[in-house]
Amino acid sequence: MRLKRKDLLGIEELDRSEIEQILSTAESFKEVSAREIKKVPTLRGKTVINLFYEPSTRTRTSFEIAAKRMSADAVNISVSTSSVTKGETLRDTAKNLEAMRPDCIVVRHSSSGTPEMLSKYVSCSVVNAGDGAHEHPSQALLDMLTVKEKKGRIEGIKLSIIGDITHSRVARSNIYGFTKLGAEVTVCGPPTMIPPGIEKLGCSVTTDMNAALRGADVVMMLRIQMERQKESLFPSVREYSRLYGLDEAKLKSAKDDVIILHPGPINRGVEISSEVADGPYSLILDQVTNGVAVRMAIFYMLLGGTREESLK
Amino acid sequence: MNRLVIKGGRLIDPSVNVDGLFNIYVMGGRVGTIKPADKDTTELVEGAPGLEVIDATGLVVLPGFIDAHTHLREPGFEYKETIKTGTQAASAGGFTSVLCMANTNPVNDNESVTRYILDKAKAEGIASVNPIGAVTVGQKGERLTEFGELKNAGCVALSDDGVPITDGTVMRRALEYSKIFGLPIISHAEDPRLALSGVMNEGAVSTRLGLKGIPNAAEDTIVARDLSLAELTGGRLHIAHVSTRGAVELIRAAKARGVNVTAEATPHHLTLTDEAVSGYSTFTKMNPPLRTQDDVDALRAGLKDGTIDCIATDHAPQSTVEKDVEFDKAANGIVGLETAFSLAYGLVEEGILTLHDIIRALTINPSKAFSLNKGSLRVGSQADIAIVDLNKTWTVDPRKLKSKSKNTPYAVKTLKGVVVKTVVNGSVVYDASKVN
Predict the structure, then answer these.
(1) Which of B196, B203, B210 sits opposite A197 (nearest CB)?
(2) Candidates B208, B326, B329; nearest CB to A201
């Protein structure tokens, strides 16, 4: 099954059935990573370029492993070693990469909208691996897969996303994804980190951590960036942690079978205490495992077979 | 002596409350006589040497437009625009006079730069060029420029446009000191500490797109400050590119109190909202940013009731080097001279403004705001004329724009109202029938 689109730029543009197809494909690929020989020949001869303008360990490695397990050739370009440091523009970089005939470019960039621009420059597929504060679709898909596995469903689930919503592409992609699959999403954080009009994306908003935790089936904690202190978004890490850090005491307001997600990397003792991060409710490492399966599914559904075939 | 006769057109001249069919006789670059078309018995010898006759039947004849806010980019950024191409773009848009901003390289903060601009304009320009000098040396917001020298050299106003004057005392002194010369101080009203690294309007759309927002308050607070300073000093203030409802309301209240202030709005702020940024086209990135429909409605009402005096383009040519990059990195601004009239006329077609409203805002109002003694076709005035066809449409093709830069968000849009001919100083400088 192939997606009826060239690129995966965000969850906003996907409809429910496309999301469900990706998730079920990912479920079937999970088994590959459990094999002795973790490889299928499906995408042999395809070339994937990971073009990362921002530092990343987890996401870049995950895309690379996913491509390799599908037998595609994966090439990594990080900005510090590329011509970008010599002043090459995005368009020129894109055109030069395209001239080498890749099948897919996976791009991460600090500037929102860059994957969409890139997709207009090149004829191969573009996968957004996170752009500014816009979207991070593969992260949302792996989060949905993780919740679906543990809870058996997403429809009717109550998800609370807590932290710096303003600067979070993970929050935006998850709001779209979970609401499209019938979940109820609440975002929570200090008012300085709740962007205007976020409710128009389909979520409700609270600044009260306990209210966000009460009745939640899934709690997603977001990484807090220390440098935001300088922008007066919160007065101190200490106060932020007291008000919005998830520890065992606060977790008591949540349901007994609550699960905790975090897109990583975590700041232990800031937005999440070590006991919670390493505790029984935490699925942080399951998310990472599922990330590979979801990205295998994304490659398969964008690059497998021919696009024309899938349109028949 | 060359003569030009414009026959049978509908002359609209808000400066003298004229709207009717007239024949206009231009001699020696000036409006000689104006006769009602149906009673004019003058016999013209067609083909007589030095006589040019324009049949304007079915067309509308207007005082040439005056743009209070143009970036001609010369000297320093000739790869974006030159005085030659910029005035060609102006004439193609019906503009016969432009006021050009000081943020060139070097900055127009002394008479040698002003004279360079005027000499270039005389040699290569086909519309009248009126330089705006910088308020502060190098537009650094610290030391005032020599206003007297700039005025003598030919500057008609002062502005650090592009860079807000953040120091309230500098703004206060500029408003006070400029009183000697009657030069308006044009405020680019923006608090950079509130705008921060924003790249579009702050609101639901910036949230959805994940782009950093600029709140209305970044503009409103500085408009409030500058209005207070104009009131305190009795200085002459002009607010550039008003984009927010708050600013419109502040200016309206200040005018009611008698503050000596005028204001302008751009065609893009009058016609587009921040929704246009969806898709991340860098041709929707400008400063101030495109705002919400509520702000657009307030600007239109402000133009209607006279709170906003002028429609000014903020024509800001940028090359692909500045625009064909990530949204965050892209330079601000769009070209505007060639689409301004049609966009303004679109508001007439929509029933939001009258033809007289927009003509006033393009002609006599900017003339009065900057004491140009233009924007009118009364007998004896300089024959700067725009002839337009309100029944025709055109489709914006960036490749065909006269401007050296093509950064317009209106590509492939079909607009109503076509500039047919533009006359500067009695000579036809633009003729739509003679271009591709």
Answers:
(1) B203
(2) B208
Decide if A154 contacts A182 (C-beta within 8 A).
yes
pLDDT of residue B1: 59
Q: Is B38 noted as a catalytic residue in this protein?
A: no
Query: Chain A within 8 Å of B294 (Cβ-Cβ)?
Result: no
Give the SS3 label for residue A194: coil
- Cβ burial of A57 (10 Å; 0-12, 13-18, 19+) is exposed
Q: How many CA atoms lie within 13 A of A94 on its CB side?
A: 22
Mean pLDDT of chain A: 93
Identity (one letter) of the amino acid at A227? E
pLDDT above 70 for A311: no
Band of pLDDT at residue A307, cut at 50, 70 and 90: very low
The mean pLDDT value for B31-40 works out to 94
Q: How would DSSP label each residue in B357-372?
A: HHHHHHTHHHHHHTT-
The span from the CA of A159 to the CA of A181, in Å, is 12
Catalytic residue (one of B161, B314, B357, B389): B314
Coil/strand/helix, residue B421: strand
Contact B286, B335 (CB under 8 A): no
Q: Cβ(B32)–Cβ(B39) under 8 Å? A: no
What pLDDT is recorded for position B368? 98
The H or E element spanning position A219 is strand A218-221
Q: Is B204 on the interface with A (CB under 8 A)?
A: yes
pTM for the model stands at 0.94
What's the length of chain B?
A: 436
pLDDT tens, A232-277? 899 999 999 999 999 999 999 999 999 999 998 999 999 999 999 9
Q: Is B141 left (phi over 0), alpha (psi -120 to 50) or beta?
A: left
Cα(B348)–Cα(A177) distance, integer angstroms: 43
How many Cα atoms within 13 Å fall on the side-chain side of residue A301?
Answer: 25
Q: What's the pLDDT tens digit per position in B231-277?
A: 999 999 999 999 999 999 999 999 999 999 999 999 999 999 999 99
User: Own/partner pairs for B47-53, CB < 8 Å, 24+ apart?
Assistant: B50/B1, B50/B2, B50/B3, B51/B2, B51/B3, B51/B4, B51/B5, B52/B2, B52/B3, B52/B4, B52/B5, B52/B428, B53/B4, B53/B5, B53/B7
Q: Which of A55, A271, A285 is nearest to A163 (CA)?
A: A271
Confidence of residue A107 (pLDDT cuts 50, 70, 90): very high
Tell whether the model's pLDDT for residue A85 goes beyond 70.
Answer: no
List the single residue in A112, A196, A231 with the smallest CB-CB distance to B209: A112
Per DSSP (E only), the strands in B28-100 are 30-36, 51-55, 60-63, 65-70, 95-100
Tally the C-alpha atoms within 13 A of residue B413's C-alpha that lie toward its C-beta. Answer: 14
Residue B410 reports pLDDT greater than 90: yes
Calculate the alpha carbon distances from B313 to A132, B133, B190, B295, B374 in Å: 31, 18, 18, 18, 18
Q: Does B211 contact A at CB distance below 8 Å?
A: yes
Average pLDDT of the segment spanning B331-355: 98
